[in-house]
Design a protein that fits this description.
This protein is α+β, with helices and mostly antiparallel strands and 603 residues long. The chain is 33% helix and 18% strand. A hairpin with a 4-residue loop joins β6 and β7. Keywords: Disulfide bond, FAD, Flavoprotein, Glycoprotein, Signal.
């Protein structure tokens, strides 16, 4: 499928390309707004879905999908306007006018980006809000569903079960998360050991590209389809919908939550979990959450084990007694229910809550938060656990969540999708800190606590690079200013998120969006010019030689600066480049990864 209805937008760009660049924000805003009105069609006018600051509904529309209160402060940058698209043509016109007038487009589906990247920017911008585009068309005959990116995960699960409760989908356990960001960033849930990631079960997609063409998998080609199923869709276009394969779920599943403190042998149980969680039957998923609680007036560590088992209690107990008896699971700990009900259980709804709650778009909890991620390759020794537990009791607020891998996750190639974290991983780790206080001072305090715990974990997690998960967005890993050093800035975080798949993503990005219209603080960059690539290659070579000759030369940064906004400012300086191409730092991108990415370029 390839539709060319975007001829109107090409016409916009042609007609207005000779207009002079306007630097004043007000003029750009006025011209952009007029452009939207001028090229809107009477049959599906865009005027009714444009919200400007003068509109009484502007604030409520903006705030409705802000899921991190850290980005709902009076000092937070606000969009020039919001477009809540109802039609494909609304998106096409928005792209055409934004290109013409040089405005940044932020694309928001559910607003759960941990760093607010879908609705905050340091440059003039507008939001393309996708929440109206939420249709879900289920075909039980084909065991598939077309899902628009403005839908939520809860709506997907509900609609699938509405047609046949023998089907589910492997995705997140938070029902208010938007499909667009979740799927395009890979998507995972508590069935990933059985069925893999969300993107491992996506078979088609629709995207509107930088030229306004509406494409499906056939017309976009396999490279672009690969990129938007795990590489972040907003770097490549506006993803309109995904076609998913529904997966079978049993009539009865079993869940449990078991908690153990240090006095209840938590250290030994946590250590044993690391040895078995990725090797148990594929039908079982046991998340491990470690936090600090008060017990008898003293701080202690609590390890919570939250599980979904695709089967009944009897079989679950048999598997646990054989593979993880240290947990001491009892029949009384287990609760049987339907798979759809288990989503409510995992989300924390009270027992007996109607599954209709999955259709609500109001989050259960709305707070200020910071998240980071890591990957566990080897079990942390008991001495290491004791060290981390002691540090956590000093910090108090940060929480560690371990999600086990293995099973289907270990069977899929790291190159099958942009998401590369497959075989060889015991678990993915999330660092989570929540707080209720408003203001920058409070945010700085709690963010620093999270960074401290991340630092303490350095010896025990992946290295060279220290890997990270795109959907646990973390601007501490680097920010792209989308200027002349875009590729170098992008490599810093890109190799952590995508490892060697980063270079393929850059190649695809350069082909489909050479002008880098679809960009954000951690988007996929385009390749620089051939001349710049040559100069960069020489600098990398010089840096590498300098490090070999002078191993004590500090060509590294151990950790990002507080504002995480360091960038290269002078490409003529080898030292400047080497500062983002570290050698021995476990917290930094492996130098050889950057070097190899340049050596592999096809000139």
């Amino acid at each position: 499928m390839r539709t060319s209805s975007f001829a109107v937008v090409l016409f916009i760009s042609f007609c207005l390309s000779s207009s002079s660049w306007v630097t004043a924000d007000n003029s750009v805003y006025d011209n952009f707004l007029q452009c939207l009105y001028n090229y809107s069609q009477p049959s599906n006018s865009i005027s009714g879905v444009i919200y400007t600051p003068s509109n009484s509904s502007y604030s409520s529309v903006l705030q409705s999908y802000i899921r991190n209160l850290r980005f709902n402060e009076s000092s937070t940058s606000k969009p020039l306007l919001i477009i809540t698209a109802l039609e494909v043509s609304h998106i096409q016109i928005a792209i055409g006018c934004a290109k013409t007038h040089g405005l940044q487009m932020k694309i928001r589906s559910g607003g759960h980006d941990y760093e607010g990247v879908s609705y905050v920017s340091d440059v003039p911008f507008f939001i393309l809000d996708m929440f109206n585009l939420r249709s879900i068309n289920v075909s039980i005959k084909d065991e598939t569903a077309w899902v628009q990116t403005g839908a939520t995960l809860g709506e997907v699960y509900y609609r699938a079960a509405e047609h046949n409760n023998s089907y589910g989908f492997p995705a997140g356990v938070c029902p208010t998360v938007g499909v667009g960001g979740h799927f395009s960033g890979a998507g995972y849930g508590n069935m990933m050991r059985k069925y893999g990631l969300s993107v491992d079960n996506i078979i088609d997609a629709q995207i509107i590209d930088v030229n306004g063409n509406l494409l499906d998998r056939t017309s976009m080609g396999e490279d672009l389809f690969w990129a938007i199923t795990g590489g972040g869709g907003s770097s490549f276009g506006v993803v309109l919908a995904y076609k998913i394969n529904l997966v079978p779920v049993p009539a009865i599943v079993t869940v449990f939550r078991v908690e153990r403190t240090l006095a209840q042998n938590a250290t030994d149980i946590v250590h044993r979990w690391q040895e078995v969680a990725d090797k148990l039957d594929n039908d079982i998923f046991i998340r491990m959450i470690i936090d600090v609680v008060n017990s008898g007036g003293n701080k202690t560590i609590r390890a919570s084990f939250l599980s979904l088992f695709l089967g009944d209690t009897e079989r679950l107990l048999s598997i646990m007694n054989a593979g993880f008896p240290e947990l001491g699971l009892q029949k009384s700990d287990c609760h049987e229910m339907t798979w759809l009900e288990s989503v409510l259980y995992w989300t924390g709804f009270p027992n007996g809550t109607s599954v209709d709650a999955l259709l609500s778009r109001v989050p259960q909890v709305l707070t200020h938060l910071k998240r980071k991620s890591d990957y566990l390759k080897e079990p942390i020794p008991k001495e290491g656990l004791e060290y981390i537990f002691q540090r956590m009791m000093e910090l108090v607020s940060p929480v560690l969540t371990f999600n086990p891998y293995g099973g289907r996750m270990a069977e899929i190639s790291e190159f099958a999708k942009p998401f590369p974290h497959r075989a060889g991983n015991i678990a993915k780790i999330q660092y989570a800190t929540n707080w209720n206080e408003d203001g920058v001072e409070a945010a700085d305090h709690y963010i620093n606590l999270t960074r401290m715990l991340y630092g303490y974990m350095t010896p025990f997690v992946s290295k060279f690079p220290r890997e990270a998960f795109l959907n646990y967005r973390d601007l501490d890993l680097g920010i792209n200013h989308n200027g002349r050093n875009s590729y170098l800035e992008g490599a810093v975080y890109g190799i952590k998120y995508f490892k060697s798949n980063f270079n393929r993503l850059v190649q695809i990005k350069t082909k489909v969006d050479p002008g880098n219209f679809f960009r954000n603080e951690q988007s996929i960059p385009t390749y620089p010019s051939w001349r710049k690539i040559f100069n960069i290659s020489l600098m990398i070579k010089e840096c590498k030689e300098n490090r070999s000759e002078s191993p004590k030369e500090p060509w590294t940064i151990i950790s990002p600066p507080k504002d995480a906004r360091a960038s290269i400012t002078d490409l003529s300086s080898p030292r400047a480049f080497c500062q983002i191409s570290p050698n021995h730092s476990a917290d930094a991108v492996g130098f050889n990864r950057v070097w190899e990415s340049f050596e592999s370029l096809e000139y």
